Amino acid sequence: MKKGFTVRRGALDGVEAALCVAQHRSFRKAAAELGVTPSAIGQAVRALEGRLGAALFLRTTRSVGLTEAGERFLARAKPAFEELVAASEVARGLGQRPAGLLRLSVPRSVVPILLEPLIASFCQAYPEVEVEIAVSEQLVDLAAQGFDAGIRMGQFIAADMVAVRLTPPIRFVIVGSPAYFTRIGRPQCPEELSRHACVRWRRSNGVLAPWSLNDHGREIEIAVSGPFIGHDFPTVLGAAIRGVGLAQVPAPVAAEALAAGKLVEVLEPFAPMTPGVFLYYPSRRQMLPKLRAFVDHVKSRPEAARRSRSPEDKPPRPRKGR
To answer: Strand 64-66 vs strand 100-106: parallel, antiparallel, or unpaired?
Structure first.
């Protein structure tokens, strides 16, 4: 048998009226405070007493008092009703202005490059919003795990998500340390990768990601091998800097190490383009002001304003097996 509601339908009807009458010991004063007629207050209280099966008030032409049932009802119902009112005010406040806790699920590699400057300016603009960054490579269920939004590369975002572009399309580059190339030499074509030590990346679903390359407009995938496996791009990059082997990472992740001469890019003509990084969330209809403010803040950045809103801004459908 299907279970009904814990609180019966209409069980709270008349409670506010009864509490107001008990506070003022007057139906007329309660009616004035609540902005209704004394007869409406009387009807609401009588209906409540009827549902409870007990009289709450002792009424005379001169005064209103509480019965024992009324005293006990007041002692339990008053703090509970005040908590309901407070809860309603909190929910209403979160629905009317940017405030509360904004939880984002993000991969570690985007935090220093993209998120730190963005979050700093957002926190200054919206001091009533607390931002929590949960760093994870997992593609989490946003709703089930209590996240407002996530940040991921476009090819891994589900098609039913609303997505907002954070970066232009990104090259995936193959890099290695000068010390590694001194020992092994540089590959001149994709086929030579088979004789190189390659630092691999294990996706959140447990699959070792093949390396993707662009061979004159044709996308190819190569299953590389090597002595080290990382679960995120910063770890993979660190191994490459220390000469463990070659690594394939998003160009922004490697930019600082390339500029400092700690890494060197190889096979540049074969570097594929990926859709870039997107902020994503489940539905515009369920968006609270805190998330709307964050989305608007993302879109208001100078680099975002320079981009036209074209079909290419939408992420592609996710690859199977991710």
So the answer is: unpaired
Q: Is 6 exposed, middle or buried (0-12, 13-18, 19+ CB in 10 A)?
A: exposed
Alpha-carbon gap, residue 161 to 268, rounded angstroms: 33
Q: For residue 110, how many C-alpha atoms fall within 13 Å in the half-sphere facing its CB?
A: 24
Distance of alpha carbon 151 from alpha carbon 289, whole angstroms? 19
Q: Which CATH architecture has domain 170-274?
A: 3-Layer(aba) Sandwich (3.40)
Span 47-58, pLDDT tens digits: 988 888 999 998
**pLDDT per position as a tens digit, 263-321:** 999 999 999 999 999 999 987 666 889 999 999 998 887 655 444 343 345 665 555 44
Phi, psi at residue 223, to the nearest 5°? -85, 105
Which numeric CATH code is attached to 15-96?
1.10.10.10
The CA distance from 195 to 267, in Å, is 15
Whether the model pTM is above 0.85: no
Tokens of 245: 């082997």
Nearest to 184 by CA among 200, 195, 173: 195
